[in-house]
Design a protein that fits this description.
single chain, 350 residues, mainly alpha, 72% helix, 0% strand
Length: 350
């Protein structure tokens, strides 16, 4: 990227930050007024989270709106400034790939919105059933992969940097669908401590922006920087003590955004490293549930045992005495470290 383009993407991030931050001045009181408060179940987190009962949810609209508006504005400024050849098919494909990421993220955000609305309407923490979510996610994942194939990514290799598979054909898409569903839900699980998911995702998007620069995916950088700025603007309202939660509306949107950007870049090792915090969060739940069921069956007293105090693993640290701020800082730094490793592998194996 040229210096001028870095100025454009930085202004894009700033624009998104301002929209997200300022929109909270209106959105938070509005959510209070219509009583869209988050139901809290103690089995989903430490008992002291009960005091968060009724905190407005669906605050993810702040960064959803800001990232889309800022990304499109940044793209058109880039078009006007760089005057690309509008007859070049790759120019169009680059825009359509970014647009595919936005639409895919919006679709998953819509799934989260239906889930949030159902919870609020029922006044409990039971939204869509797992099978309803998975069915909708399967549809969205398939359509997104179809869009990528149409707009210039015909490769069906899995790229791990130091090694890449042969072309897998249809099996590539069959493998990527569960990857998409796992990662998007992993991001959703990360949203359990004030400011955590927004901070980790802001760091992930900054790393992705550097990677877009290396891979010359300039247009996609408009979306990654817009989302980084939007997350930071949202944190003005979401850091402990949170005045507003992003809800599944926001976390599902972020999950789809992280996953889609990684797949557009088609660097699977990079995606694995950038998303490592989310992956470990979801993995802690899998390990906990599996170990509990196994010990319940094999122990003479049929009392299941746990490895962690509570999962996802951020609750384990919380119950071990970490403050919410400390968890946010630790997890965000961990995400940055893995992200830097991803950048290094990208430079080495480009």
């Amino acid at each position: 990227m040229s210096i001028s383009f870095w100025i454009i993407v930085l202004l894009t991030a700033l624009f998104s930050f301002v929209i997200a931050g300022v929109s909270g001045i209106w959105l938070v009181p509005f959510l209070h007024r219509i009583k869209f408060g988050q139901p809290i179940k103690t089995e989903d987190g430490p008992k002291w989270h009960e005091k968060k009962q009724g905190t407005p949810t669906m605050g993810g609209f702040m960064f959803i709106v800001s990232s889309i508006v800022a990304a499109l504005a940044g793209y058109w400024i880039y078009r006007l400034h760089s005057s690309p050849d509008i007859t070049d098919i790759e120019t169009h494909h680059a825009f359509y790939r970014m647009l595919s990421c936005i639409i895919f993220s919006l679709f998953f955000g819509l799934i989260g919105f239906v889930d949030d609305y159902t919870k609020v309407a029922r006044k409990n923490n039971d939204g869509l059933t797992p099978w309803q979510k998975i069915a909708l996610q399967l549809v969205g994942s398939g359509l997104f992969l179809l869009a990528l194939h149409k707009f210039g990514d015909g490769s069906t290799r899995i790229d791990l940097g130091f090694w890449a598979t042969p072309e897998l054909g249809i099996f590539y898409y069959i493998l990527m669908i569960p990857v998409i569903i796992y990662l998007t839900n992993a991001v959703n699980l990360t949203d359990g401590v004030d400011g955590l998911c927004g901070s980790v995702t802001a760091a992930a998007m900054l790393v992705f922006t550097v990677c877009c620069s290396i891979l010359e995916e300039n247009v996609l950088s408009c979306f990654t920087m817009a989302l980084a700025g939007g997350c930071l603007g949202f944190l003005l309202w979401n850091l402990n003590p949170a005045k507003c939660f992003m809800g599944d509306t926001g976390s599902m949107f972020l999950g789809a955004a992280v996953t889609s950007v990684g797949l557009v870049l088609h660097k699977h090792l990079l995606l694995l490293l950038v998303a490592m915090v989310y992956i470990l969060e979801a993995l802690s739940v899998v390990i906990q549930v599996s170990y509990f069921k196994y010990t319940k069956k094999t122990r003479p007293d049929h009392q299941g045992q746990r490895i962690f105090k509570m999962t996802p693993i951020h609750h384990h640290f919380e119950m071990s005495g970490f403050s919410e701020y400390k968890i946010v800082i630790t997890f965000s730094l961990t995400g940055i470290i893995f992200g830097v490793l991803g950048i290094i592998t990208l430079l080495v194996f480009k």
